[in-house]
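Methods: example folding runs. The two proteins below were folded one after another, and each record is reproduced exactly as written to the output file, sequence line first and structure-token line second.
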Amino acid sequence: MVIRPLASILGLLLTCSTAQAAEHGVKELSPDHLTIGPGELSVGISQQWQQPLPQVQRALIVIHGRLRNAQTYLHSAEQAAIQAGQLSTTLIVAPQFLNDTDGSRHALPDAVLRWHANDWMAGDPALGPAPLSSYAALDKILERLDDRKRFPALREVVIAGHSGGAQVVQRYALTTQADKALQADGIKVRYVIANPSSYAYFNAQRPIPTFDAANCPGFNTWKYGLKKLPAYAEGQKHRQLEQAYVERDITYLLGAKDTDPNHPALDKSCEAEAQGAFRLERGKNYFEYLTQRHPQGLNQRLVEVPGVGHNGEQMFTSPEGQKALFGE
């Protein structure tokens, strides 16, 4: 009889859960859809947005992780908004990036956008019904929010993600230009990046002294670096991408206990290992890397959440999380 430690059992269960979501499709589909050109994106929303919402002052776009459990993240964001006293004036939008296995499990209509495996995390094009980048889908959400007839009091849009969703937010903040239109209309755009497994670096520098690039040829390729950028970022120069990124308002929200180098959902590839041993270390290393490259200062900050590990709801509902999301 083999007796496993409780931590090992919980890790095994999480690994199985993640694998099941990848192989057999998500359990819960978001109930709403946003028409995006030739396709539809599944979304969860806290308020119906077909009609004008004159009370909404902030939109919070929250991005799920590898499990594609958008409704879970919607509920966590709603709980954070309730605790911060901001629910009535906040529209929460939780896009759901479905993949090919979800289509098999739920018999999705042909019009619903879906990606291969986790390709949506890197901004890759959808499998169908059109080759739309997942980042372009986020652009369309921003475009919808930039409608003063529908949202006359909107003053701020916050794009937040935890874990795999934080990887999306970091790369999206690096490549998007869609936030410029909102800012031109007086709508501030902020980004909250919580506990991602990895970041996109701007050059070949990495923080681990023992890292051997010769044994990890993909370490500086997208999504870990800027080589072979996705088609979404085509035509943008690396220097322009970096300058735009460091000017954006970004909070790196890191769990002080997200320190397990063997966490079952941690990216253990050599590309990610070059950035640090665990998520807290990788986040600190990346922020230090940015401050070294831009000593004139950043419009960004690193915030640690005491007592919290790799848990999205605890991160967002913590006092630090509420301040990052709602500025309260």
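Second run, written to the same file directly after the first:
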Amino acid sequence: EDYVQDLKNIIFQEKLGTLYEKTIRIQKLAKKIGDYLEVGEETQKNTERAAYLSKADLVTKMVDEFTELQGKMGMEYAKHSGENEIVSTAIYEQYLPRFAGDELPTTTAGSILSIADKLDTIVGSFAIGIQPTGSQDPYGLRRQALGIINIILDKRLNLALGELIDFALYIFVEELGLVFDYSSVKKQIVDFLNGRIKNMFSDMGIRYDIIDGVISTGTDNIYDLKVRADKLNQYLEENGLTEILSTFNRVISLAEKSNSTNVKRDLLIEGAEIELYDAFNDIEEKVLNCLDKKEYDKALELFIGLKGPVDNFFDHVMVMVEDENLRENRLSILGKISKTMLLICDLSKLVK
């Protein structure tokens, strides 16, 4: 613990402050992640303690001489200083995985600490305009992003990355007074992480169009994206979707013209539109229940059951009629169907 104050004398990065300032940021971010995951009080306490001590070994002569021992010596020093096993192990695990195929953290505290450390570096680097270009990646941001993704998938952590990026950016503003284009920087970080997710999922054998389809749902929960992609990938391999893609692409295309998803039942005058509206109402709650259970394949199967009523609707109902009320109401039906479908996957991204 005595070494922590010495971190004030070591610059982490000129615009991102000292290692001590990074330590405080990691501690705050680790607490946020722990709160988000609703970890137990003891785990939260151990994680915050490990975060506070995480960089202390960097000012020791042993790590100064043998930099590859960072974290490992921290674990040993922590044990000899009377820290418990969880805290000591987490100090070592903050650097895992160090390379492709490396071991992953085994403890919850170590997993949270590793994510916090890596996310702080990624977010801070993008905030000051440092990001990978081509083969250049001096801060190893790609490797750190892959580390975050691997830990989340291995531990099946339900984390909304958008909220964590928001919080990490806020810390930089609060602690260092950094000034940057917030929306632009956040988008760059999200796009960067999505790029790594796409590459990793593709290496796992998931179809590229399914990857695009699930990412287009807007969810930023990496574990949820993987479950969704796996189930839809398997479903398509077994059943295919050739027959329904054109049907639902038409729904999506027209739904973009809708201004509302509020359908007025009394304005439904054609038999085909009443049939479609009733058919959708019959499956809507079932679909949402499937989504809650992460049963995305079952949700998709329910949606595929709408093909008949949708085709019948397009065959017998003119959507873009002159009567504004009828036109908006029919577009609202399609908007409602499209909005719910996008909770599963953007079928317009899929290819035959």
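Comment on the second run: Strands lie at 11-13, 17-18.
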